[in-house]
Amino acid sequence: MGADSAVCSASFTTVVKYGIESMSDLASILLSERIIYLGMALASDDETRQSFSLGMNVTQLMIAQLLCLEFESNSAITIYINSTGSTDINSNAIGHETEAFAIYDTIRFIESPVHTFCVGVAMGTATMLLACGASGCRASLPNASIILNQPYNYVGGSSTDINIQVEQLLLSRSIMHEILSIHIGKSLQQIRSDCNRIHHLTAYQALHYGIIDDVIAAP
Known about the structure:
Blueprint: E1 4-9, E2 12-17, E3 20-25, H1 26-32, E4 35-38, H2 46-51, H3 58-72, E5 77-83, H4 97-109, E6 114-123, H5 125-131, E7 138-140, E8 145-148, H6 159-184, H7 188-195, E9 199-202, H8 203-209, E10 214-215
Organism: Paulinella chromatophora
Pfam families: CLP_protease
Protein name: ATP-dependent Clp protease proteolytic subunit
């Protein structure tokens, strides 16, 4: 091995640097290289995260990581995305779109350019985050799945409560559609139509659609 090497085990790594061994968690190693990995759904509450074995509040963690890296320097940050966004794989809502909006607003707030890269799947609000990367710096691996959809939220309670929930749901969908339209360059009408049903895209179809700028294939 060279001067720097790493042997991976679970979520921790034994890092060997200049002959000195130390333990470090993988997230910290990635963060030191200005890399953030979104590898889970954006669940909103503790009960939902527990039922899906998600554990942490990934939204709070990502925002903290973005702000931390922005504090260090204005160099580029890369977000690797393998997430179904605020839904499960069947488009059932397990979180609120506001989770993704908070991450999106932070990306737009910081001065560091953010590069986005899909590895595996980007779905719904995760596709929105993929699309909002810096122009020319949004990419995907060739076998990734990129999916446009909108969640099917459960609403209940009194008629007044239902009306309030439906109004909020429609507002969130409208915001997501507007963000996608801005970063993809397609009309709101087309975005609404394409998100109305689950719309699966290959990496190359997503490239043609305007969600990403490049497909990175093996040399």
